[in-house]
Fold Histone H3.2.
Amino acid sequence: MQAAARKSAPCIGGVKKPHRYRPGTVALREIRKYQKNTELLIRKLPFQRLVREIAQLFKHDMRFQSHAVLALQEAAEAYLVGLFEDTNLCAIHSKRVTIMSKDVQLARRIRGERL
């Protein structure tokens, strides 16, 4: 009687499905990981190329000390982290958990930044 109550037969010789975490679990783990460390998250060489490209618009053959580029990178990352914090607060205020471009625009507007 109990054998007939089973919904499906046991899997014999089947392929085991890979383990999957629930949606959001890996994202939360990643957030905790990056909140713990203090290393720079933007790669150094691409950032340095960007700085040189922008500097070319103002003056040609400009040189940078390595510490100057690192200071610019620290400042850029600190700005972005703060902007994302404010953006997240805007999304939470709208009763959402997903940030959208309108949240970034609102955060910049409240900060007094203009394009």
Notes: The longest helix spans residues 66-93.
